[in-house]
Amino acid sequence: MLYLNTEHLEHLDLPWNLCIETIRRTVHVMAAHEFSQPIKPYLLFEQDPSSRIIAMPAYVGGEIGMAGIKWIASFPGNHARQIPRAHSVTILNDSGSGKPLAMINSPLISGIRTASVSGLMIQEYEKVHPWTDKIIAGMVGFGPIGQLHLSMLTQLLGDRLGGLRIFDQNPDVLQHIPDGLNARVQCVGSWEEAYEGANLFLTCTISSSGYINRKPRERSLLLNVSLRDFTPDILDYTSAIVVDDWDEVCRANTDIEHMSTHRGLKKEDTVSIVDVVCSNGLAKFPAHEAVMFNPMGMAAFDIAIGSLFYREALSAGCGEELEE
């Protein structure tokens, strides 16, 4: 069995376009119903309701042909302890024999999956609503997930990214902005400053409840990565709600659950990422409205990205072989 950790993943340094294309291929596998993905259970703790450990098993068929599970712990309170919020281990199994092939001991693989799904959504949005001017982006939260999204955005959009306004309550994290981006990245003092006028907006926080209640810019793309930053009032301004999987995302105190409970949002009011990629799902919505994407995180995507890094590691002779 091959063992990969953060150092190995960083050494491979796979381009974002390759990771995004892996997510796209996985979506097509899902559309063909060549996958299995049980609803993921949450291990909760009475003493800290915000903390959880999640089991995410999946099988992805087609050319990916891999099974496995991600076991990921999310403890928002770790932020105050100055230790990482997320810890995860991904196990990959041969889908023909069940033999364990790899163990990836790193939360980085989960972050790469998250930013890759965002990248795919950007690509799909641009097919329907191409940005003709420079893209003005806003971001709240600049921890590890925000930093990976900045890397993805700069590689995916290149010079088309005209500027990025970042707000984080911890100013120390802003030292992670690469020196070469200082001319395009601006640190602002509030979420409102990051949000107002942005035609691409991302939430990458550890927020436990919504606070964003203002009208977004028309024809903008809202990537609600952290899922607990918007209030149900956003439905006053847009009906264009996209999810990765309704059954997964409409629970666990997410913005989608609150929209369902307080505003009557239903599954049939939304489109899924499979609809978007395979059935021109964004055409369902009024062209002038902002599109809001809410990704709970799908195990199939984790297994696909893990499979990509596993195979690239084998080719590069990267990682450590563990004896049975």
What percent strand?
15-25%
Count of extended strands: 16
Distance between the termini: 7 Å
Q: Could you spell the SSE succession in H and E letters?
A: EHHEEEEHEEHEHEEHEEEHHEHEHE
Supply Rg: 19 Å
Largest sheet: 8 strands, mixed
Q: How does the overall form come out from the CA principal axes?
A: globular
Derived from helix and strand composition plus strand pairing, the structural class reads alpha/beta
User: What's the helical proportion of residues?
Assistant: 25-40%
Uncertain stretches of 5 or more adjacent residues: none
Number of helices: 10
Mean pLDDT: 96
Fill in the keyword field for this structure.
single chain; 324 residues; alpha/beta; 10 helices; 16 strands
Strand-helix topology:
Blueprint: E1 2-5, H1 6-12, H2 16-31, E2 35-36, E3 42-44, E4 52-60, E5 66-74, H3 78-81, E6 86-94, E7 100-105, H4 108-128, E8 135-140, H5 144-157, E9 161-167, E10 185-187, H6 191-195, E11 200-203, E12 221-223, E13 240-243, H7 246-249, H8 255-263, E14 271-272, H9 273-279, E15 291-294, H10 299-316, E16 320-321
Parallel strand pairs: 1-7, 8-9, 8-11, 9-10, 11-12, 12-15, 13-14, 13-15
Antiparallel strand pairs: 1-16, 2-4, 3-4, 4-5, 5-6, 6-7
Helix pairs in contact: 2-4, 2-9, 2-10, 4-5, 4-10
Describe the protein in words.
This protein has 324 residues and is an alpha/beta fold. The protein is 32% helix and 24% strand. The chain is built from ten helices and 16 strands. Strands 1, 2, 3, 4, 5, 6, 7 and 16 form an eight-stranded mixed beta sheet that branches. An eight-stranded parallel beta sheet has the order 10-9-8-11-12-15-13-14. Strand 3 and strand 4 form a beta hairpin. Helix 4 packs across helix 10. It starts with a strand and ends with a strand. The mean pLDDT is 96.
